[in-house]
From TrEMBL, chain B:
Residue ranges constituting the Acyl-CoA dehydrogenase/oxidase N-terminal domain according to the UniProt record: 79-156
Cofactor(s) required for function per UniProt: FAD
Domain Acetyl-CoA dehydrogenase-like C-terminal: 475-591
EC number assigned by the record: 1.3.99.41
Organism: Caenispirillum salinarum AK4
Protein name: 3-methylmercaptopropionyl-CoA dehydrogenase
Domain Acyl-CoA oxidase/dehydrogenase middle span(s) in chain numbering: 162-272
Amino acid sequence: MTSKTETPIKKVAVIGAGVMGAGIAAHVANAGIPVVLLDIVPEGAANRNAIAEDAVQKMLKADPAPFMHKRNAKLIQTGNIEDHLDLLADCDWIVEAVIERLDIKQSLYAKIDGVRKAGSVVSSNTSTIPLATLTEGLPDGFKADFCITHFFNPPRYMRLLELVTAPETRTDAATAITEFCDHKLGKSVVVCKDRPGFIANRLGILWLLAGVTEARRLGLTVEEADAIIGRPFGIPKTGVFGLIDLVGLDLMPHVLKSMVGALPETDAFFQLDRDLSLVEKMIAEGYTGRKGKGGFYRINRAGGAKVKEAIDLQTGEYRPTVKPALESIDAGKSGGAAALLTHSDKGGRYARAVMARTLAYAAALVPEAADEVYAVDEAMRLGYNWKQGPFELIDKIGADTLIQVLKSEGMAVPTLLETAAGKTFYKIEGGTRLQLGTDGQYREMVRPDGVVMLADIKLTAKPLVKTSSAALWDIGDGVACLEFTGKMNSLDPDVLKCIHKSIPVVEQGFKALVIYNEGSNFSVGANLGLALFAANMAAWSQIEELVEKGQQVYKALKYAPFPVVAAPSGMALGGGCEIVLHSDAVQAHAETYIGLVEVGVGLIPGWGGCKEMLARWTEAGAANKAPKGPMPPVAKAFETISVATVAKSAAEAQSNLFLRPTDGVTMNRYRLLADAKARALALAEGYTPPEEPVFRLPGETGRVALEMAVKGFRKLGKATPHDEVVSAALASVLTGGETADMTVELSEDDVLELEREAFNTLLRHPDTLARVEHMLETGKPLRN
Amino acid sequence: MAVYQAPLRDMRFTYRELLGSDKVTELPGCEEATPDLVDAVLEEAGKVCESVLFPLNRSGDEEGCTFENGVVRTPKGFKEAYETFREGGWVGMACDPDYGGQGLPNCVNTLVEEMICSANMSFGMYPGLSHGAYKAIKRFGTDEQKQTYLPKLTDGIWSGTMCLTEPHCGTDLGLIRTKAEPGAAEGEWKITGTKIFISAGEHDLTENIIHLVLARLPDAPPGIKGISLFVVPKFMPKEDGSVGARNGVACGSIEHKMGIKASATCVMNFDEATGWLVGEPHKGMRAMFTMMNAARLGVGVQGLGIMEASYQGAVDYARERTQGRALTGAKAPEQKADPIIVHPDVRRMLLTMKAYTEGGRMLAAWISQELDYAEKCQDPKRRQEAEDFVALMTPIVKGVLTDLGSEVANLGVQVYGGHGYIREWGMEQYVRDARIAQIYEGTNGIQALDLVGRKLGAHTGRYLRRFFHPLSEYIDRIMDDDELEDFALPLAKQFVRLQQATGYIAQKGLSNPNEAGAAATDYMRLFGLVAMGYLWVRAVEVAKQNLDGDEADFYKAKITTAKFYFERLLPQTGALFAAIMSGSRTMMEMDEAAF
């Protein structure tokens, strides 16, 4: 793991092995830190550690996986709070994640305080109980070491961590936790005040409640509601009802109750209809959401067919879903959120009743629950996956427009929003990012130490090279950064052109190159749409040229006289994986999903992916890290590529050799560029390009063996007819083609030629074209 | 004088020799359509067209339809001709035998339709519209509707219409105002509204007229998604198959048109007329779309029919008319002047007409054969391919063949000189009749937009594959064929132009739809020319194998026509390509006020 700061936290304990506690423990293990996981002793249990042990076992099977690598489970030491409290003695941080009952928590704190070492930090994962209440009556020493660390579910994937401290909390304790969560756990730590629901849930629950009750009041269907409170506002398309189905209906009444119990009657919650009787009825009948029989939506399998149904909010009866058709929805598509918010139909009324209210509430939370608007935005982006936070949304809609909407609806205009009249909450001045404060003054927004964002650099810099799909930037200290900019960061001729033009620029003016971008995915691979269209119009020479160009450009990167560091995050698939494979080193975000997935669309890696995987497994054999000889690398590469293996984390990618064991991993997405840049500079000192590998491949005998294996899978029904065709082409490339045998040395270019030929032949196959089309249209592979 | 003889020899060439007519007999329902049977059908159709329909073409044009007190009369002789036509079973030629039809494949029907349009395009409108109504009810109607209407429409004793256009909307049917309200009985609707440009809306040829009407239900969503299809008979059908009381639909007036004057184009007023829903509520446009391929193909064939008739008239005249001498000296010294056919420019016109006509026939026949596969093939893969292909090529057949119809009809007039311009010779009628085919069933501008907007990008270009892949493979195959060296390279070059233009439009059109719109018409023409070029090379291949037989002259003429097409017509692609690649900027930058 790469980290700038040495952490004082060497060992962690989590008490409570429920979904949240176990998930937190798993994620601490993901950071490579040993962790103790304790729960109560179940009544009459033979195995007194059953709860914690079962939790770990369950997590090993869960999807999405809480562990970044299965071996991380070994870092968790399980036990129970009756027999193993002494395990806390050497822990630097103890996280309490037990049931939300004050008495239980407080008695646990007393026990913890009895065994914990001096200077250790204790935190609660509570989502509802105020900090002051939690520590009431506890010793001052405990209070000084205590804070709230509120994780979001699932802890591995949700990047938000809400931190609440008391005036008594030691500053260095808060700093230690913040740094650990930031660097080691990769969280964005948002500081909240000790107010009910903190930031994300306070706002989120109001939003969901308004979404549910206003839909019924205004007579909208759940489909209409989700179409409005979704995409048009940059909110995931699950909207309100789909999201509640996802997180579970049973959470709603419970959280609402605690929220209403803790907030003053002047709060916006009390202006809403809070009648959740339909939800309660559904819970009683087992309709608790996707984990249960269904929720607001369900799949009705009666009669054999799968019919998606939605509940009628007025009658409580299910009926087949109907595609929403409202003028306001269409208006939102063309005119954006503002057009939807000001539309006169019931969709517009609903948007006002839910979103205008929610945005106003967000403004009311500063400074009550958060010190700055950025904290609220970050909380909603990372805690609820909103594309833009509420204040970014207000900027988009226009503060004045929102004020008018609120007035016309008879809703109060919060002070902060009034302050923003005629202004925006964010602005950029001279390359500096500013946010509006409660006093109406703009203040500079400062990134945490060691965080470098390309977006910030781009505010003032001009690209050194630019095409429609990629750009080259100067990121300082003699390092250049290649950024993909196309749709989903897919790779097309313009990306290749940009790389081609960038190489001499970097060579002349820079020490090293980093390949990095801030899209949600590093790259989803070659632009399949372009390729399919070209194939459909039989533009074969154009396609052949593109394949060859890609090989040349990637090879040129590999042997360029400067080090190249790829810094992937999110998906790095197909051609996106191949560029990573051609880099001298990689600094990967821990959440990198990397693989050569070409066979899924009936193709094989054609930009040197086959070649690089062969070289990596051969190298591993030579270093005694994998079996030696010509066949094992071929078999390994075949195994990996023929089933389109995708590593589900950077750690897994190291096992598959998509990443080298020496490649770095960064937990915090915001720190990736800085880490990659540091790695690039470290390599630049006395850099010499790698030597070209030479291949000795088994030829026909090897090919036959691989084909036999595939035939076996075919008989078992695990491979489809076209899988067989694609596998045969892959086997032929990896074994060196028709004429190879172990006595013949093949160069990189020889293998690249084999890749090209196989790729071009496969792309003419109608079954391959059908796969590509299916992938483009459904996002899923076609098993033909 | 305009003359017409069914081009049976060339049809046989297209149908049997080029497309391999025995192929369709593998399709269910087409088993009996053997080449011999088809030959016999075409011969009989030719006789009817030559002897019954063609003689009424000019008189029908002169007299036109008349409208009096809500009654429309077709010109003299039409009623009798229709009876002969109907009794011969021609109305139901392509209809299902279950309803009394003959079940002949589309590709045969296309050739017969061509003959009908050559002989008398106005007349052809009446059975043509009936067939459209037949298809709609057959595909979307209830069993009861099918039993009530299909046997009558197949027989021809009743006829049909399609009532889409309203005074304020034609292309944009989402604006339709005609409404349907609940009627007296369950399932009955009261249709109220005005439809215009309704071909065969009212006439005296049949005992009943079955209108298919687009209207809105009371709960219809706005726009194109709220339109439903209704069947509204002129007379209420009775249980026993006879006609009952008059329904609330009447003709308000008929249009006075440029051409097809013997076809009644009516304003139809629906005043709480009783109708029944055909297909699902609000899905009327979908029903229309599924019938559109066949209907548009039919209009393309009208262009083709006019081309053939005009060509025949022109050749006849060019041989007979003597004026001046050949440029190289007298060719017929025994006469006072040479026939004008000796002149290069007259030959240019005649060969242009011939090459487009025969090329257009190959194209139309090819697409209609694939339409048979799209409708009837049991192998889902093959059927899908055919559906894709027909979807892609339909706008091209409609747009290009009707544009060429007009061009060829104009050349026909030109060959006649001053005599072409006067009515007596019959050549100017073709110009007038051909003109509407470029407009109705979606103007040719709309066809071009359909091609670049809907068809090009569909499934990331999958429709294109059905044309581009066979053509690419064909070019690879003939590239080394010495026999075809005059054709292979030019075809390959034009194909590359088509590929480049396709890629350009697809890419530019994504970011700026005006780019696709600006290129559309030229692109459609480019596509059509390349498609015909491909068919002409295939025709040459067939012809070269037959140069030693009894019909050597026929095949030699094929090869010469193909050469002419390649030398004189296909090169237009160069100019079209340049125009396409120039983009939309100039035409869009002009200030509206400056027009």
